[in-house]
What does this fold into?
Amino acid sequence: MIPLLAVDLLLMLPALLLLGVVFLLPLLRDAWLSLHASTVVTGLMAVPNGAANWWRLFDDARFRQDAFQTVRFTGVSVALELVLGLGLALLLHRPGRGRALLRALVLLPWALPTTVMALGWRWILNDPHGPLNGLLQAVGLPTFGFLTTPSTTWLAVVVADVWKTTPFVALLLLAGLQSIPVDLVEALQLEGAGRLTILRRLTLPLLAPWIALALLFRIAQSLGVFDLIQVLTGGGPAGSTESLAMYAYRQSLRFLDFGYGATVLMATFLLLLLPGVIWLLLQNRLPRRTA
Amino acid sequence: MRALVLLWSLGPLLWQLRTSLLPPDALVGQGPTAWTLENYRLVLSGDPPLWASLRNSGLVGLGTTLLTLSLALPCAYALQRHRAGLLGWGVGAVLLAASLFPTVLLFLGLLEMARSLHLANSLTALCLPYTALALPLAILILRAAIAALPPELEDAARLEGLALGQRLRSVLLPLLAPALASTAILTFLASWNEYPIALTWISRVDRLTLPTAMARLAGSSVFTVPYGAFAAATVLGSLPLLLLVLVAQRWIISGLTQGAVKG
It folds into this structure.
């Protein structure tokens, strides 16, 4: 008789092995590569160069700019997605005819390929022929270069991202709403509590773990934003929408500087650990507060 | 309120549909707005034709889904038995972290791997990283579904003397069908939409997946005012998913919430 634990480990092994190869190896390789020079000059061979890549990173104005832009994009879009997602979840939670169809239709933007809809938004925001500028002209305003104005184009990126990802946040929060016992809501209603009071005193506190999870998901994904911006603006105009992941991609595949590209990736990874750690700390506090 | 939400969600999609049916001159406000299928003819007869990338994405999606299910189910089954223990907790934490991870950060390491193992431009090989990306959520969904099964069920099957394989086939699989459907759909969606890895692994134009073909369209200037063609490509690339979401909305929602929240 083979012990049960051995059987279970055997059953898990293929999946865990593949996860290790695809997730862990590239990360370790990045960490290793970030301590090497691997460029056209070295014939793309990795030559140890100590912390040179990291010193370069600290001095790199473009890296600082992209880091700022990535964090700004993450902060603003995730905040909007949370607020709109909560509203949407409340709407989808309300009973009514055609609720299933409404949920399916609302889900659509999230399900479509990011590159596909980024192309769609490029047309919508086109200056002067896109429909949005058509609207502006119809009410007698001049057209606006939504994707060509360096100071505001990042906001257009935020709008496209909010359009695409709010349904995801709404779905997570909807699951949270469905887990709230109906009797609790009714009890508060009997006490004469209004809708806003119920939302503040009951719904939001009970929803807190779901909100935290949705935040964590969205912050992690936004800090690595790539597809959307790559197709919508290509990082332009004048680099004003370039994200860290795009910078790493450009360094390695356009300039063939793999050592520095890996360093940018590692830095992004370290940035990513921050919300994870905060979430872990909150995890330990939230249940006690809602209990 | 509902009308407003629908307008916001569907407006951009409907506008793409409209754009795809107009001739290029009409888009820049110079020609009559006569409906035409010319844009569809353009993208379907282009080089490479769009249907090739639709087919590639479909094949990779199917392969990834099959591989993911066959790796995730045994893992979830075994993991569930150690839910309370340190092993179960540790693996669960790793899976959650992996499901949060923005996969674009892996592209450089994966690219080197593909080069040294000569896997570049192979659609079959592309299923491997895609499976790994889908596995964390898949295992979490299936583990939650297995945890929800009544424990007596399996004991009874075991008492009947059914071997592990038989227990899986005749008892577990039918009961897990909804969770398996959720997992399959979410896996297919993720694989259909993945961009950074396909971008770095696939360079042959006849092997491009849909997202990479779309991005390539966006970067090229083959068409003079290309937005009609873009829109036609958008519509064609969205149609399969539109059908999938309309048919399988229930499983998508239950899968996402089970995997992410209860997992």
Q: What stands out?
A: Chain A has one domain: 57-290. The CA atoms of residues 143 and 281 of chain A lie 48 Å apart.
